[in-house]
Amino acid sequence: MILNYKNSSIHYTTEGEGNPIVLLHGFLESVAMWQDLVTEFSTTNNVICIDLLGHGETDCIGYVHTMEAMAEAVLAVLEHLNIENAHVVGHSMGGYVALALAEQKPELFKGLCLMNSTYEADDNARKLIRTRASEMAQQNFEVLVKMSFANLFAPESKVKHEAAYDKSLQLALKTPLQGYIAAQEGMKLRPDRFNILKNLKCKKIIIAGRKDSLIDTDQIIEKIRTTDIDLVEFSEGHMSYIENKSELSYNILHFVEK
């Protein structure tokens, strides 16, 4: 389905009836990443998936897509669908967008799941990596995406889940260059939102991968120790929906239903 938004189009899907679950994909992903989970979750829930700005079938609306701008686009879809409260699951960049949405409209949330994501802002080293990646993308986008995509998986997962890995990579390569750069620039600008997460009045869970090279799980464990934020740790890397598929499905459904 398509929503007209700021002279552009936002693509989203909605399946099933019941409690709303909003699924927000990560960088270089699209609603397609959720296909298997949607099939399972939609038997008892209303599952809404949204292509974020510059990804999937959603248009770019500029050359910098801040997490706040992406959250506003998500909110436009939810208001269009008359969704007043929901469980929100955000994978990686989708988690950053979910936190920006929580800052804008906290009453929307019945629960928030950060999946292979973090509340932290980029440090200077990470910002520099993003800047260099955007520069490299303009020279050889395909090579860059293949290199960066490989780092998202635990080494053995690329072999164990070869077909799913290749499928996800092909979807990543369909991301437009403008969408790639705009998201990188937007992620560089995001603030630390630990206090937003900590003070949000709903169920909260972080799903982490022990072999995730992008997220400092030990630091997160220490930071949330005295909060009401739960943490579930899986055995593999950043792509839990492929690497720890059955565990992910179980934990999200348990989170939504408890």
Automatic annotation (TrEMBL):
Highest rank taxon of the organism: Bacteria
Regions crossing the membrane: none
AB hydrolase-1 domain sequence ranges: 19-244
InterPro entries with a match to the protein in the record: AB_hydrolase_1, AB_hydrolase_fold, AB_hydrolase_sf
SUPFAM superfamilies, sorted: alpha/beta-Hydrolases
Pfam families linked to this entry: Abhydrolase_1 (PF00561)
Listed name of the protein: Pimeloyl-ACP methyl ester carboxylesterase
Organism field: Winogradskyella thalassocola
